[in-house]
Fold this protein.
Amino acid sequence: MVAVVAGLAVLAALGAGFFAWQKASEADRLRSELTIARSNLDKARADVKKAAQDVAAAAKEAKELKVATERLTAERDSVRSSLETAQASGEQLRGELALAKDQVSYLSARSSKDVVRGMPKSASPAR
């Protein structure tokens, strides 16, 4: 009977040892998985940090481009306004020139031929 009890005790000890060994190997496997998960988490954090830096740089660049666009738009509008003013001045000067030609023609037709002969035919250089 003692041999049977001793045998059962040995079997129980072997079973407990196997169970302990199994739990220890499972704990080692879980530690390994935890280490891998922590490593992946650290990598993900680094990726998120880099992405945040990239977003900040892109936002800064977008802001700079917006300022440049606004400046160029204002410059374009200014040039457009200047061009329209120059065109209007040109039109006004053409109208005044046409009127002056008509007036000279009118006066030439009513003046004596000696006066008309003495009139300059082209603009004299500025002195």
User: Anything to note?
Assistant: The two ends are 144 Å apart (CA to CA). Residues 2-110 form the longest helix (109 residues).
